[in-house]
Amino acid sequence: MPDILVMVKLAERCNIECDYCYMYTGVDQGWRTRPAKLAEGNSTALARRLEEFRSTHPGSKIMLEIHGGEPLLVGKSNMRKFLGDVRASLPPSDLHICAQTNAVLLDPEWLSIFDEYQGTISISCDGPPEIHDRHRVRYDGSGTGQAVEKAIRLCLEHPRSDELFSGVLAVAEPTYDSRRIVRYFRDLGVTNFDFLLPDANYIHPPKHVRDYSHPMMLRFLENAFDEWMAIDDPDFTIRMFSNFIRGIFGRRSTLDAFGGDLWPIVVVESDGSYRLLDVLAICEEGVTETNLHVTTDTLSKYLDYTRSYYPPPSATCRNCEAFTACGGGYLAHRFDGKSYDNPSFYCEVFLGIYRPIRGHL
């Protein structure tokens, strides 16, 4: 049995309004019919399922990613109870816990909670506040960048920052100055961040980017890579580029966005249902449904269901020079309205950045 990632939506609503969000702006709007928060009974059942999986598959690594929506909306007392239930039977050696947050609510008490239960925090931030605020705003239209920068500094100043803070995820927006974004995170003291390509495919291009084109995204990434090389610090990592470098040396990516296996990823929605990769919400309505539930079905049963479910990368990708680096791209980005048997929507970008990285090496 492989290592597994369990993504749980403790809170399936959000306190900010990002115009590129795959969940709230996607084709599948099923979140509207699900509860705002995971019920206590389902939360307890999930803790039991994790313990059960560990006992039956002692050789597998388990990661629990607390996701959303915005997970901190579940509240501090509920988070303490959930983490306490999980940690009662699964110590850090058996289960890694991480949370992905927009950080607007993050404060010292939240950091103490995750520190107490030996979890990690990753923050979503697109760059300096004036850049971040173009797409990540509150419902009244006000920006969140200053609050997020304050939260990042709070994490970095924590006495156990190296164990507690796992880094930053930034959505790449090609009208921005990527060199400036790289320098911003470097100057803040962030040592690990990643650029995420906007969730898009052949029928739904990045609608939040005016006059989007692949050449403009390629320039964005090339400039970011050049800046990263100029900094020349082995302790400052941009995950996308590190992943491509490993691919050039023949090591296939384990990241889901670059061809890593999807079937060991379990999504637990706020109604307790097991779902497929939730980013598929940008493709088709209802595509993630499995009719499996945390109270009635084991994690192993879910994995048996998904083991042969996801389509492989297209033959075009498998015969491409860049395949070990990009893996054919994200499944959701391969959809053309009828099929997933296509190169990624971002194929031109992947090839374009792969070749100069390879040449540099």
What distinguishing features does this structure have?
TIM Barrel; 13 helices; 12 strands; 361 residues; alpha/beta; 35% helix; single chain; two-stranded antiparallel sheet; 15% strand; ten-stranded mixed sheet
Characterise the protein shown here.
This protein is of the alpha/beta class. The chain has one domain (4-312): Alpha-Beta Barrel (TIM Barrel). Helices cover 35% and strands 15% of the residues. The protein is built from 13 helices and twelve strands. The strands form two sheets. Strands 9-8-7-5-4-3-1-10-11-12 form a ten-stranded mixed sheet. A hairpin with a 4-residue loop joins strand 10 (265-268) and strand 11.
Find the CATH topology: TIM Barrel
Determine the strand fraction and express it as a percent band. Answer: 5-15%
Series of H and E elements: EEHEHEHEHEHHEHEHEHEEEHHHH
**How many alpha or pi helices?**
13
Low-confidence stretches: none
Major β-sheet strand ordering: 9-8-7-5-4-3-1-10-11-12
- What's the architecture in CATH terms? Alpha-Beta Barrel
Top-tier CATH class? Alpha Beta
Described by strand count, sense and barrel closure, the largest sheet is:
10 strands, mixed
User: What's the number of extended β-strand segments?
Assistant: 12
CATH homologous superfamily title: Aldolase class I
How does the helix and strand content classify structurally?
Answer: alpha/beta
Q: What value does the average pLDDT take?
A: 96
State the separation between the terminal residues, measured CA to CA. Answer: 35 Å
The count of domains is 1
Query: C-alpha Rg, in Å?
Result: 20 Å
- Helix proportion: 25-40%
Shape: globular
